[in-house]
Every structure is written in structure tokens, then in C-alpha cells.
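cron nightly-structures :: item 1 of 1
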Amino acid sequence: MGTASTASTASTASTDMEYRRLGASGLKVPALSLGTGTFGGRGPLFGAWGTTDVQEARRLLDIAVDAGVTLFDTADVYSDGASEEVLGQAVRGRRDQVLISTKAGLPTGDGPQDAGTSRARLTRSVDDALRRLGTDYLDLFQLHAYDAGTPIEEVLATLEDLVRAGKIRYTGVSNFSGWQLMKSLALADRHGRPRYAAHQVYYSLVGRDYEWELMPLAEEEGVGALVWSPLGWGRLTGRIRRGQPLPAGSRLHDTADYGPPVEEELFYRVVDVLDGIAAETGRTVPQIAINWLLRRPTVSSVIIGARNEEQLRQNLGAVGWSLTDDQVARLDAASTRTAPYPYFPYRRQEAFARLNPPLAG
């Protein structure tokens, strides 16, 4: 992890970026990557996230690349493909300096081939993404969701063909359950097909469900976590306080129902501890929340987002320093909640924990 630093301000981005292997693969990714959900700004969800155009996107990429961020994540459903289009234009002239990750599988229309991960859909989705991005290969291609209607063997065979064709270099998934990911990995091994290197997951101080099953699976099988929504769907910005209304500019007014649920009491308990550590360190609440994630097992990269240059520079300040062990322990305690069955005995009973101790928390 990054070494402690006392000589930088909270709003200054560190250029001391750490690079980590993506799971058990040979691909090295930056500890922080940039999500492009704000690019394009079409539709009720993504329009509320941001409306970054090509000129603004180029400026954000300039700042990110200067800070050592080389991985940029998008998806075909982000603003109906506009995010990929804007990102493609923003990386023009420096494609060999960056890594592009995109996702497909969620519905993009009402037609029979407009959803899922069939051979027909995946082949078309990859070709469409390449066209929108203006590139001839994807560094990482991820299934945005598990498709129960398509045999896993068909999915894996199609992805292998796309890898062999040079259109994809690495594959991954997003939002899979433990059994879905493990069955996919087992079938890949059985048939000698490329294994998923990445799992793009929700993980934050106010949403630690990833630790119960997916983290141990990732540790055992060599799958790197790419963390989405590290600030709890925009809640850990430092602007939301107990007993006060949501700030006028918060995207939660329009998007709260789209995101993961958060227990109110847990949220305010975490915010109280974050505020205390912010006072101790001079760091901001988002920087502390992201830095905590960077210490967690199996995390290859944390995907940060930004509507503007100020937010980007703020989030980039999460690297180049480290929380103390005491500060981490306080955040762990504040954010812990009782795990569901069958996980809670391994957290609460010593006899169970001796057989299968948790990796984190």
C-alpha cells in the first residue's frame, strides 16, 4: 500500500500511483481507475450522474494520466453508448498509454438479441463497443450481469473466440454471486478456456457484503476486485450529516433507488468516525473512505468517478499515504454489521472462526 505522507494537502493528487496485478493475471492496473459513468449524460440515471462532453473528458483524462491512472472503465448501457463514444474520442492519440475496460450484457433495447450474453449478443456487443470507442481491441471486457438463460459453456466459448480474434485481451464479470462465478471458473478450467481475471463489485464502508463470500472466493481463485461505487453510491462525500436534509446538488435525489441500500444507523456511525479521522489527518471523507478500501484483500483497483476536475483531484488524493492501524480498526468497527447465515457463525463463534477465519473485518 502507499506509504504515509504528511506533506501534502487534501486536495492535491498524488503522482505516486501504485500498480497491482489484476487477480492472478499478468495485467498490471493502477490502484485507482476512472469510471466514465458521467460521460455522455443521457437518460434519467446517467443524466443525473453527469454530462461530461468530449472536451471535458479530455481534460479529466489529462489529469488522471498525469496522476498515474491508466485504466478507464465504461459500459454499453452508460448513456446508451455515449459514454463509450466520449471516452473513445478522449483517448484518441494516446490509446497505447491507457487501458480500456467496458461491459455488456444488460438490456440495451426490447429486441430478443438486445439483452444477455448469448454468442450472438456478445459478438455484436464487442463489435459495437470497438466501433464506439474507436479502437480495435479491449484491454478488459466484462459481463455486466449473470445471464441465467445462456449456458455458461456458450459464454466461455464465445469469449475465447473473441480473445483469439484479438478483440479482447482479458475477461471478467460484474455483479455475479459466488456460485455463478465459481461455476464459471470451474468450467473454464475443465475446458481449458480463459479464466475471468476480474470481478467488478460493489464494496464500500457502508456496504461490506463483498467480504462474506466473494472476497474469500477471489482470494482462493485469483480474481481481482475492481470496486465500483466506493463512496456508497455518493453517500460518503462528507456532505451528508445526521438530522440534515440532503444537499441540494446531491445526485441521491434522483438516483438513490437505483443503488445499493444502506442502513441509516450504520451510515451515520461510519460518518462520525470518518469525520474524526478527517480532523486527525487533514484528509477529506472521500479520501479516507477510498484509502480504507485500498488496504482490503483482493482489491486490484478502486474505480473513482468525477463530475468535474475538482472532484477528480479530490479523489486522486486517496493514494500516496496510509491510514494508521488504529484508524483502520475504528473504521472496521463502525462499519461492521451482522452477517447473514451461513456466514455469521464464522464471524461470531471462535470454533467456527478457527476453521475459516475471515480475510477482513
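cron nightly-structures :: done
The chain has a mean pLDDT of 91.
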